[in-house]
Amino acid sequence: MAVIHPVPPAAGISATGSIRIPEEVIQIATDSIGIYFERFNRMRPRDIAVDFMNPARCVKRMQELEQYAPLRGKKLLEIGSGYGSNLATCIADFGADGYGIEPSGEGFGAGFVASQKLLQANGIDPGRVTNAFGESLPFADKSFDIVYSANVLEHTQNPEQVLREAMRVLRDDGRLFIEIPNFLSYFEGHYMVVMPPVLWRPMLAWWVKLAFRRDPSFVYTLQTKINPIWARRQVRELSKLYRFDETSIGQEMFLNRLSKSFAFEAKIVEGRIGGLMRAVQAVNAGNWLGHLFIALQAYYPIYIKLHKIGSSQPVAVD
């Protein structure tokens, strides 16, 4: 399962990376994820597909990951590798020995086939992606140096089990980096709407239906229990099984991002809340709003970051 084309040095990565998104893959994504989400976020299907696989977005994500876990030469698993653009980027531009799992799922059912086509078009063995679920990873214990996932846990049947499986396949001295939404925050990324803190799932369904006249059915596929309180609880539970010398749920990353000119990963998100974020930053002297969001458990997104150093010894979690 080797990378066929040469891997460029990390220092020479352009802002858009080197991977190519074939028109065939864009069309598959347009006909699947694009059309599926059009009725929820009212964006054009092709715009949804292009934004979802934007190579510049993938480079930015891998750069964020690399600040925490150097990628070159490391064996990485992406849980929920989608249409393959993140995985191809981490292999082709960052030199990781990358693998992914992608099951069929509502709104994302074509991802497994499309990701194989994308990898093959970029000279990468399509066998690096396995059709599997995060709740039951088809890998031996301690198989990977890095386990990564972006905006996937909220779509799983059992996010707690996915985290346990992620830790099982992570080697000692390995790093977990998982990005997830915060349903106590101000923004819902699937419907592309601002929202109040979601205390229970029907509240979000009522909100998107009454405030925005959107189809609320997709809400019932989401794990709206995910928030910083939930994330801390999961870290505490995992600490009963594994030892960590570093834990975080991403407050420091939020403060750092809010203190700078805000750069959105997704253009369609910028189009919806870009003005709001610029207004927030205009009055955010000393990052007081960032600290307020954190105090209210309302920062976005959450990043669960764990450095595993062993097993079976509990550690304290702040």
Please describe what this structure looks like.
The protein has 318 residues and is α/β, with parallel strands linked by helices. The chain has a single domain (10-311), classed as Rossmann fold (3-Layer(aba) Sandwich). It is built from eleven helices and nine strands. It has helices spanning 23-41, 45-52, 55-68, 85-92, 111-121, 159-169, 201-212, 228-238, 251-258, 267-282, 288-295, and strands at 75-79, 97-101, 129-130, 144-150, 170-180, 187-188, 193-194, 242-248, 302-311. The strands form two sheets. It has a seven-stranded mixed β-sheet, with helices on both faces. A two-stranded antiparallel ribbon has the order 6-7. Residues 1-9 have low confidence and may be disordered.
Number of strands: 9
Going by CATH, what is the homologous superfamily?
Vaccinia Virus protein VP39
Rg to the nearest angstrom?
Answer: 19 Å
Report mean pLDDT, rounded to a whole number: 89
- The assigned structural class equals alpha/beta
- How much of the sequence is in beta strands? 15-25%
